[in-house]
Design a protein that fits this description.
Layout (H helix, E strand, L loop, with lengths): L6 E5 L4 H12 L3 E6 L2 H13 L4 E5 L5 H15 L4 E4 L14 H29 L3 E6 L12 H16 L8 E8 L2 E2 L1 H4 L3 H11 L3 E2 H13 L7 E5 L3 E5 L6
Parallel strand pairs: 1-2, 1-4, 2-3, 4-5, 5-6, 6-9, 7-8
Antiparallel strand pairs: 9-10
Helix pairs in contact: 1-8, 3-4, 4-5
The chain binds nicotinamide-adenine-dinucleotide (NAD).
Length: about 250
């Protein structure tokens, strides 16, 4: 799909990977709707995108709330007439030590990183079906969903779930609806900055370096443009750039 004159929705769009993706899709001609709990950052991002000549709109959204996700979709269609690209990207890191964490802590991780992505994917597919012109859903998973992540097992479990969700929905390609996952390796965003310099240095050494949010945005753009990919799982790593795990191709 050529993003020119298309409409994209990006959750977690006020920061990091979501913001970089919004800017890149906008630079490639798409109207971009940013959704986030961080309203001030979202408003600033819209301002920045519009100042660069793009079309953008912010909808304050808590992905934990089903009603917010539906309102986001409705508001997108109301503002720009339809939706073509949905990037379910909002996410949080796991907090605390696995063996110490209470149920509410790990449930929060599962709720944002997996359950909200399932719900948002449902809403997106229903809308794309209704429109009847196909479309693409790209869900942000993580390399932590493919390889073990001893420091964040619930996060890794959530992201593995996102990967399997996307792979399992590959069959929607028969309707022109492509659901794909993107799996960033360690990426320099406010989420990882919160861990502090020493942790960043250690992680970067472990995985061979640190990616920029723009590297992930470039992968999302590739997944938008490549009509042959459905149920695909793109990895983004310092060592191999953009490549695919599982190599499932549409039937
Ligand atoms: N940074 C990395 O190393 C890395 C690696 C792999 C995957 N990821 C994934 O990339 C995605 C984006 O993360 P990022 O690194 O850009 O971090 P980030 O913190 O910069 O961006 C995440 C955004 O999600 C928003 N968000 C969190 N909870 C929300 C909620 N309930 N409702 C709406 N918005 C909410 C935050 O406000 C924030 O703007 C996440 O899904 C993350 O798990 C990040």
């Amino acid at each position: 799909m050529d993003p020119q004159n298309k409409v994209a929705v990006i959750t977690g769009g006020a920061s990091g990977i979501g913001l970089a993706t919004a800017k890149l899709l906008s630079a490639n001609g798409a109207s971009v709707v940013l959704a986030d709990v961080q309203a001030d950052l979202g408003a600033g991002a819209v301002h920045e995108i519009e100042a660069a000549g793009g079309r953008s709109h912010f909808v304050e959204t808590d992905v934990l709330k089903a009603a917010d996700l539906q309102r986001l979709m409705d508001s997108t269609v109301e503002t720009f007439g339809r939706v073509d690209i949905v990037h379910n990207n909002a996410g949080i890191n796991e907090r605390g030590d696995f063996l110490q964490a209470g149920a509410d802590e790990w449930q929060q991780t599962l709720a944002i990183d997996l359950q909200a992505v399932i719900r948002a994917t449902q809403i997106a597919v229903v809308q794309l079906r209704k429109q009847g012109n196909g479309g693409v859903v790209i869900n942000t998973a993580s390399m932590g969903g493919i390889i073990p992540m001893p420091t964040s097992p619930i996060y890794a479990t959530s992201k593995a779930g996102v990967i399997q969700l996307c792979r399992s929905l590959g069959y929607l390609a028969s309707e022109g609806i492509r659901v794909n996952a993107i799996c960033p390796s360690f990426t320099d965003t406010p989420m990882v900055r919160a861990a502090g310099e020493a942790a960043i240095e250690r992680m970067a050494q472990e995985v061979g370096g640190i990616l920029k949010a723009e590297d992930i945005a470039a992968g999302v753009l590739k997944l938008v443009e490549d009509d042959s990919r459905a149920g695909a799982v793109m990895r983004v790593t310092v060592r191999n750039g953009h490549d695919f795990a599982f190599e499932r191709r549409p039937r």
